[in-house]
């Protein structure tokens, strides 16, 4: 059998996937129109394509310092694939070294896993109008089943079976499709528009600043940015007149979505930036990152507000998290609190350098404004009412700031192998009588948000040229799947 090149393998994945989706959509349309259900033979076409890699080394094993796209154990590795045309750059990035350096063989086939019918339609309900209801379609066509969706590979719960292939990727096709639909539901943005560099915030003012930045970049001659995608599907491009752009932004129905996302795309292929207002709390933080992770982003950064816990801090100071006291509880079963979530040196250095460039401060002047330390993340916004119970734990941890999202986002990055970082801005000092009051808060927001957002954007610019070191072995386990 002829060996497939990575390009050929991805082309076959695209053909097989497109054929399966077309056949499924045609069967749906026929049933709605005529009532004729698909036969068992037809349903065999409603399946995801499968990608297999076989590695049988003979001789010395190749060495690479790369943390991903490398093979360590001979055998067969497999995964199902969805949306291969969209994931083409990612797939080729993984496959090319495996063939060129390791001599792995690639094959593409049809899997046993059926594509749920809502995943081949844009809205998911195009065929459930009139007399045909969702419950009726679910009896006749494949539907999403929770028994097929899981994070066993990411959580290290998969069980090796010598008669079965090893996992090739963290997420298979059905898990990916599940999250792609959820992303649209929560963010109001099509998943195709979400960019590989992600800012996560807990205040709409950061989003407003990001939108202003995006509109300015689109008007700036020589800017690498191409378009700003808004919740609800609207888009502003470089050709959009200024007055029209402002009107498009004003009409965007961001209030209709739980965690609205705005995406600024680039022309140079280096990946644009998306900002998501995740709201308040660890549940939202876990929810959105569970779904963002299937896109295999390059990094996500938390830029939001926190309470300062030290007398020497001043409102408006920055906190660069190098550790987390995880009191959010939401990941305790998946990633026990005793498992350390390390700071990533590449991200830490980029955040600090970005802060220096944006503020103009260096050395001792920067240290007075930016403090590195532990952040405690709670699931209870009113933790202050339990101060007598919490004070000793906070004291033992040497925490310098408190919030409700950062520890969760870092733990999710660690768990799902997405580089992460946290830079917070002190908005109040709950232990020292400087609590959030409406007047003081407004003045703080107006002063601090623009600078803080600029630091986040500058950090991403610094990290763009460090992908090899950013996707390092720090996030990889000893029995990792092959793909990043």
Automatic annotation (TrEMBL):
SUPFAM superfamilies noted in UniProt = Purine and uridine phosphorylases (SSF53167)
| Pfam families referenced in this protein's UniProt entry, alphabetically | AMNp_N, PNP_UDP_1
Tell me the keywords, alphabetical order: Glycosidase, Hydrolase
**Gene3D superfamilies, from UniProt?**
AMP nucleoside phosphorylase, N-terminal domain, Nucleoside phosphorylase domain
> Which enzyme type, at the first EC level?
hydrolase
- What are its GO biological-process terms? AMP salvage; nucleoside metabolic process
Q: Where is the Nucleoside phosphorylase domain?
A: 269-450
Reaction(s) catalysed by this chain, per the record, are: AMP + H2O = D-ribose 5-phosphate + adenine
- A Gene Ontology term for the protein's cellular component: cytosol
Q: What does the UniProt function comment say about this protein?
A: Catalyzes the hydrolysis of the N-glycosidic bond of AMP to form adenine and ribose 5-phosphate. Involved in regulation of AMP concentrations.
The UniProt family comment states:
Belongs to the AMP nucleosidase family.
**UniProt-recorded name of the protein:** AMP nucleosidase
Q: Which organism is it from?
A: Acidisoma silvae
Taxonomy of origin reads: Bacteria, Pseudomonadati, Pseudomonadota, Alphaproteobacteria, Acetobacterales
């Amino acid at each position: 059998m002829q060996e497939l090149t990575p390009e050929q393998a991805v082309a076959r994945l695209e053909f097989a996937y497109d054929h399966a989706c077309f056949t499924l959509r045609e069967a749906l349309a026929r049933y709605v129109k005529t009532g004729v259900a698909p036969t068992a033979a037809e349903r065999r076409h409603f399946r995801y394509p499968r990608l297999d890699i076989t590695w049988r080394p003979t001789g010395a094993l190749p060495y690479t310092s790369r943390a991903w796209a490398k093979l360590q154990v001979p055998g067969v590795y497999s995964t199902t694939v969805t949306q291969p045309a969209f994931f083409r750059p990612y797939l080729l990035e993984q496959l090319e070294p495996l063939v060129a350096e390791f001599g792995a063989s690639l094959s593409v086939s049809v899997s046993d896993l059926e594509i749920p019918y809502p995943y081949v339609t844009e809205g998911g309900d195009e065929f459930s109008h009139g007399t045909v209801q969702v419950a009726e379609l679910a009896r006749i066509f494949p539907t999403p089943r929770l028994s097929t969706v899981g994070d066993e590979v990411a959580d290290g719960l998969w069980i090796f079976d010598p008669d079965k292939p090893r996992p090739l990727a963290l997420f298979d096709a059905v898990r990916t499709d599940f999250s792609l639909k959820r992303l649209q539901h929560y963010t109001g943005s099509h998943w195709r528009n979400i960019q590989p560099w992600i800012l996560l915030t807990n205040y709409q003012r950061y989003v407003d600043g990001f939108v202003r930045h995006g509109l300015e970049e689109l008007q700036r001659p020589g800017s690498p940015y191409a378009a700003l995608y808004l919740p609800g599907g609207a888009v502003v491009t470089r050709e959009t007149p200024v007055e029209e752009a402002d009107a498009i932004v004003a009409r965007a129905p961001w209030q209709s979505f739980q965690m609205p996302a705005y995406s600024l795309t680039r022309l140079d292929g280096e990946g644009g930036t998306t900002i998501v207002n995740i709201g308040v709390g660890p549940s939202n933080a876990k929810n959105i990152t569970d779904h963002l992770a299937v896109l295999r982003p390059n990094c996500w950064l938390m830029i939001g507000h926190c309470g300062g816990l030290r007398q020497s801090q001043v409102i408006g100071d920055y906190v660069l998290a190098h550790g987390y006291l995880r009191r959010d509880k939401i990941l305790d079963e998946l990633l026990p609190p005793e498992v350390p979530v390390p700071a990533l040196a590449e991200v830490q250095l980029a955040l600090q350098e970005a802060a220096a460039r944006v503020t103009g401060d260096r050395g001792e002047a920067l240290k007075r404004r930016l403090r590195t330390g532990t952040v405690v993340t709670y699931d209870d916004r009113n933790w202050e009412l339990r101060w007598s119970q919490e004070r000793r734990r906070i004291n033992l941890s040497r925490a310098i700031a408190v919030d409700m999202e950062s520890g969760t986002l870092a733990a999710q990055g660690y768990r799902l192998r997405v580089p992460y970082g946290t830079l917070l801005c002190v908005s109040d000092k709950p232990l020292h009588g400087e609590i959030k009051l409406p007047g003081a808060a407004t003045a703080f927001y107006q002063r601090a948000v623009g600078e803080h957002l600029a630091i986040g954007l500058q950090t991403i610019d610094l990290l763009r040229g460090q992908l090899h070191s950013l996707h390092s072995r720090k996030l990889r386990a000893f029995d990792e799947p092959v793909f990043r």
